[in-house]
Amino acid sequence: VTRHDCHSLIIGGTRGIGRELAALLVLEGHVVSVIGRQIPELSRNETIGFWSADLLDEQRLAQTLKQVVAANGRLDNLIFLQRFKSAGDKWAGEIATSLSATRFVIERLATQFRDGPNKSIVLVSSIASRLVAEEQDVAYHVVKAGLDQLGRYYAAVLGPKGFRVNVVSPGTILKAENRAFYVKNGSLRRLFQRTIPLGRMGTALEVANVISFLCSPQASFVTGQTIGVDGGVNLLSPETLAKKLTGNGKRKPHSKNVG
Ligand SMILES: NC(=O)c1ccc[n+]([C@@H]2O[C@H](COP(=O)([O-])OP(=O)(O)OC[C@H]3O[C@@H](n4cnc5c(N)ncnc54)[C@H](OP(=O)(O)O)[C@@H]3O)[C@@H](O)[C@H]2O)c1
Hints:
Blueprint: E1 7-11, H1 16-27, E2 31-36, E3 49-52, H2 58-72, E4 77-80, H3 90-109, E5 119-124, H4 138-158, E6 163-170, E7 173-174, H5 179-184, H6 186-195, E8 202-203, H7 204-215, E9 226-229, H8 238-245, H9 254-257
Parallel strand pairs: 1-2, 1-4, 2-3, 4-5, 5-6, 6-9, 7-8
The structure holds NADP nicotinamide-adenine-dinucleotide phosphate (NAP).
NADP nicotinamide-adenine-dinucleotide phosphate (NAP) binds next to helix 1.
């Protein structure tokens, strides 16, 4: 479906999953605007509108949001893919970047959407909102859990105004920036093969595809949901995982499990 008449703003679309989403939405015919701090080098040749702003600078951010709407028109879709990666206090930084900035942008832009039945907001959380990922610090877990609930809150209060608000919750995702690490690390890939039901990591495009669906009229009655894009990683019990990892994980023949 080509949607030539549709404006999507991606917060944090200059790198990683956000950049993949920007490229996908352009292919699908959206007018795409992106906010990040550093505009990518090649951006002059692209059809994407880039605005440089720091989410932690509310005054500048408010001006930038006005400029985006003035330049590309009222919004149809608003997607949040920012991730805190700066020096300084991680707790305060995560909360400001992931939670406070998301609330600020939603509240500033809720009046700047086009009238119509397909107003969509998508937040990107993580499996770390429910599971503990030891490679991430406590603040990351807390803000991701907060985003899940922020999504449900706005789905309820903005629903009567015609907004659908959903959350996408990725597992471990392969993106341009981390591909070399995982390609080199065969033992880690083999572990993922054994512990993720779909047998592999996901890709940035697979996350982008679900966001694109949530922004489309095909998702017209979907709101307040948190949709995992994780290959089923959170389905296995600790016992099953332990058995698989110690080589004791042979599954019983299917017929013996029935009846
Ligand atoms: N990658 C994964 O495996 C994975 C797994 C689960 C969940 N997620 C979630 O998916 C989302 C995207 O992840 P990613 O790995 O693609 O992230 P990423 O590569 O680090 O990209 C983050 C984006 O946010 C922007 N950003 C960060 N701080 C900002 C600030 N203060 N002001 C404005 N823009 C800012 C960055 O641009 P600038 O640096 O130019 O500002 C960049 O465009 C995140 O919410 C992450 O938690 C990712």
